[in-house]
Design brief:
heterodimer; A: eight-stranded mixed sheet; 24 helices; 26 strands; B: MetI-like fold
């Protein structure tokens, strides 16, 4: 028996205001499956759970259908609803202590449904209570206690025991692990798996993404009451396709996450519908947006178009007005006009040589919208060349470049200035990247002056001031008149960042932006840069020779050697499980644990068609000497390595993670 | 040039000194006809008279009032120098900048031309031109400019190429800055010191060249200029005339060159912000 939720819409009314909590949710709960519901606070997760169990407050208006056994449980009378509640469907609430009656013993509380619904006697109920307590991993002796004598984690599990006592087919768990420590959490993981194996259907409301990927089968990502993406749970962490899912994953502190947590740009808001009754009797209804914790604020909510558009990293004008339906993409179903996360830049087979030096051998690179992609490699490995080719600052000898779906070479020829507005570049040496004859104001205003057609002096001034504020520099008139030689390197690099961002580009190319700064300044500039990347939803290509920095900033990393990418994949994979011997050496060198013999040589051999790492490689075989390695795909195809003998020594982790 | 720059300039002693000399010279040139006690071409006085109350600087060998001659000569020399220097420098800057920005075949062609012009001794060519074509001093100044552009073109090209390859210029191009923008906002300010220094140097060369040509008698001998005055005065070195006849044009020439040097130094300081604090 499956429970089908169709077009479930819930709004809370308060006077002439109503808050839209759920908006047309479709979801299917099947026996023997765990469905997870994730999303930020206020996305409507708990409302959905309460709607299913029929415990919404009086002021809730519900529309839609929830079909179970051919009938709509939303239509049931209070009496019928009481019967199916706890017996067929039950819910474990989030706050353990608050869900328990403080003046009743635990045993009595767990036994209550048995006594009241099934007519058990108190003594009859006792063995069942003990069995449930053991099932949730609690000592049967706890039964005699009062709720205040329990810890938060124990109370949580007592609630679970209560919910299970009547053997319901459907179980809704609201943040079951939020109050638990890691070991107890692990126990709950296995308990959930057991429940699922027993044929129950579980709805897991959580923001713990590990719980999702660890035990769930399916996951639905909820934003402002709308499902944004539905997919197999195992793919949430590895290949989220909606920009919102991806941002959620980026905000989650998993154990193997290496990048600093970013969060999601902007704030979530609630949607309020405000009804005015006019004197002439007409009723006017309009919708406001309001960020949590603020007073009523103007601005009308997106009544059409995508709800996530204001915070999205890849929004296009059509997102504001278009009809956003679900697109099926493989096993995912994505509510996105653009069909999920798009590729900002796709480069295929780009080559570049300077005279006889082949700086770049046929290289592919794809930048996804909103991600930070790091290129790591030693001096002369072609990183900067690749970055400048990506920035349209250099033309490749061969190969194609597609930027925002347009042919970059064609775009460059037709209208270079409009292309230049979309791409910001930050250079390695800030002191040389600005003219020492330009004042602070002139430096930041330069891109606007170059594209002068559309800006008046007043607007230029306003935009320069706001750009300086964004990079946390003074915008006082005296500061605007300063010259670069009066500033320190960190401040000049901030100027360069302000200059690169003044046209609101979609892509930022940062070529070793902090390597000329001392460590404390470097930390501040990096933090600023990444904060801006999140807040502006930029796609960023970050070039560095320092793997330590790369792991802090990157979503994905590509390792380059002698003009080729030798390994690429998610940052956590590259850092935690390097598979190319060269990457492994880089990681070990960065940690200072590389064998001395491995550290002495730099540079790669450029012989035609052989692995550039060959003469430094400990694992080289006869095959390596004959042909350039084919690409090996690891981790479901996300992790690519160009090596005949990819290192699998540390890959045991892969199997346990499934 | 904004107000701030002017204020900084006015506080610079180099600029003050240069401007003071130049304004005196300009005043002498403008007011020359009024201040001159006599017509400089009037030969009706007793030749080689020493200074007296009627003739402050005495009379030259041709019976002309030296003071009146000095006013006229100063004007002619300054105009000759200005024409030659500005024309030569404009040509040089034009060639140097376009050579640096265009590169390739045009660059090679222009630089070979410059080499040829550098190999030709301008004095010899000017002697021939002056002797056979008898051009007006103005045309001769232009001829001098035409012969002298190569040096400044080479210097400006070298500097422009350096600046052209600088990261901030590349950055400006990548922001969409066109050739005109890059030349106007990045290259020109960067080669400004070369421009002013070059101008002072060309002025000096032109003034000396005029003196030399006059000395060789290739100008109309009746023409008035500082060079010609020096030329005639030196003929009478055995007489005691140097204080009132030789020294005035030499001092004027020196002051002229000093003024242009002072201004060059001061402008360079003001337009290069890195040197500004030392002003």
């Amino acid at each position: 028996m499956t429970m089908r939720i169709k077009g479930l819409t819930v709004s809370y009314t308060d006077g002439d205001h109503s808050l839209l909590a759920l908006d047309g949710v479709d979801l299917t709960l099947s026996p023997g499956r765990i469905t997870a519901l994730v999303g930020e606070s206020g996305s409507g997760k708990t409302t959905l759970g309460k709607a299913l169990i029929g415990l919404l407050p009086e002021n809730a208006r519900i529309r839609g259908r929830v079909c179970l056994d051919g009938s709509d449980i939303l239509e049931l009378s209070e009496k019928e609803r009481n019967r199916y509640r706890w017996q067929r469907i039950s819910m474990v609430f989030q706050d353990g202590q608050a869900g328990l009656n403080p003046v009743m013993r635990i045993s009595d509380q767990i036994a209550e449904p048995l006594i009241r619904r099934l007519g058990y006697g108190r003594e009859e109920a006792r063995p069942a209570v003990q069995r449930r307590l053991e099932e949730v991993g609690l000592d049967a002796g706890l039964a005699k206690r009062y709720p205040h004598e329990l810890s938060g984690g124990q109370a949580q599990r007592v609630l679970l025991a209560m919910a299970l006592v009547l053997d319901p087919e459907y179980l809704i768990l609201d943040e079951p692990t939020a109050a638990l420590d890691a070991t107890t959490k692990n126990f709950v993981f296995s308990l959930l798996r057991d429940l699922k194996a027993g044929g129950r259907s579980l709805l897991l409301i959580t923001h713990d993404l590990e719980l999702v990927s660890g035990v769930s089968d399916d996951v639905a990502v909820l934003y402002l009451g709308q499902i944004m993406e539905a997919m197999p749970a195992g793919e949430l962490l590895t290949e989220p396709m909606h920009p919102y899912s991806s941002a959620l994953v980026r905000s989650f502190p998993g154990m193997d996450t290496v990048r600093d947590l970013g969060g999601i740009r902007g704030d979530a808001f609630y949607r309020f519908t405000h009804v005015h009754s006019h004197r002439d009797g007409s009723v006017h209804e309009h919708t406001h947006v309001k960020a949590p914790g603020t007073v009523h604020e103007g601005g009308h909510a997106p009544l059409e178009g995508c709800l996530f558009e204001p915070r999205c990293t890849q929004a296009i004008p059509e997102c504001r007005t278009g009809d956003v339906g679900f697109t099926a993409a493989g096993s995912h179903s994505v509510r996105c006009l653009r069909g999920g996360i798009v590729a900002m830049l796709v480069m295929e087979g780009v080559c570049k040589s300077y005279g006889s030096v082949q700086a770049l051998e046929s290289t592919d690179l794809t930048l996804k919208a909103g991600e930070v992609f790091c290129i790591v490699g030693e001096t002369g490995s072609g990183k900067t060349t690749l970055a400048m080719v990506a920035a349209a600052a250099l033309g490749p000898d061969r190969g194609s470049r597609l930027f925002e779906g347009r042919d970059m070479d064609l775009w460059r020829r037709q209208d270079y200035r409009s292309l230049a507005r979309r791409i910001g570049i930050i250079y390695q040496n800030p002191g040389e990247a600005v003219s020492h004859r330009f004042s602070v104001f002139d430096i930041v205003a330069e891109p606007l002056r170059i594209q002068k057609a559309s800006f008046g002096p007043e607007e230029i001034r306003n935009r320069v001031v706001s750009a300086l504020n964004e990079v946390r520099l003074s915008s006082a008139p005296e500061f605007l008149k300063r010259y670069p030689h009066e500033l320190n390197m960190g401040a000049i690099q901030r100027l360069c960042i302000a200059r690169a961002l003044i046209h609101d580009p979609v892509m930022l190319i940062a070529d070793e932006p902090t390597s000329s700064l001392d460590p404390s300044v470097q930390a501040k500039v990096l933090k600023l840069l990444l904060g801006l990347q999140i807040e502006k939803g930029l796609t960023m290509l970050f070039v560095t020779h320092d793997l330590g920095i790369a792991r802090k900033v990157a979503d994905r990393i590509a390792v380059m050697l002698a003009g080729r990418v030798v390994e690429s994949g998610p940052a956590k994979r590259i850092v935690n499980h390097p598979s190319h011997p060269y990457t492994e050496m880089l990681v070990e060198s960065a940690k200072g644990t590389a064998a001395p013999s491995l550290r002495i040589e730099v540079g790669g051999n450029q012989d035609e068609g052989i692995c550039p790492f060959l003469h430094r490689c400990r694992f080289a075989t006869e095959r390596c000497r004959r042909r350039y390695p084919e690409v090996a795909a690891l981790d479901g195809g996300h992790h690519l390595v160009w090596c005949w003998n990819p290192r699998r020594s540390s890959s045991i982790m892969d199997w346990t993670q499934g | 040039m904004d107000f701030e720059t002017l204020r900084k300039l006015s506080r610079d002693p180099w600029f003050g000194a240069g401007m003071a000399i130049l304004s005196v010279v300009a005043a002498l040139i403008l007011l020359g006809p009024v201040l001159s006690p006599y017509d400089p071409y009037d030969m009706g006085f007793r030749p080689l008279s020493p200074p007296s109350s009627g003739h402050w600087l005495g009379i030259n060998d041709g019976g002309m009032d030296i003071l009146s001659e000095l006013f006229m000569g100063l004007k002619n020399t300054v105009f000759f120098g200005l024409i030659a220097a500005s024309a030569g420098l404009t040509l040089g800057a034009l060639v140097g900048l376009s050579s640096a920005v265009a590169g390739g075949a045009l660059d090679r062609f222009l630089m070979r031309m410059a080499d040829i012009f550098l190999a030709v001794p301008p004095v010899m060519v000017l002697i021939l031109v002056a002797a056979f074509f008898r051009p007006s001093p103005r045309v001769l100044a232009l001829a001098l400019a035409f012969l002298g552009w190569a040096r400044s073109a080479k210097v400006i090209r070298a500097q422009a190429r350096v600046v052209n390859g600088a990261l901030h210029v590349k950055a400006a191009r990548r922001m969409g800055g066109g050739r005109v923008y890059v030349i106007a906002r990045h290259l020109m300010p960067e080669i400004f010191p070369l421009y002013v220094i070059g101008f002072a140097a060309q002025l000096r060369v032109a003034v000396f060249m005029e003196a030399s040509l006059s000395f060789l008698g290739l100008f109309d001998p009746s023409r008035k200029s500082l060079g010609i005055m020096i030329h005639y005065a030196l003929r009478y070195y055995y007489m005691d005339v140097w204080i009132h006849w030789l020294l005035p044009p030499v001092v004027c020439l020196t002051l002229l060159i000093m003024a242009s040097t002072f201004l060059a130094v001061s402008l360079e300081k003001v337009f290069d912000p890195r040197l500004k604090e030392t002003v």
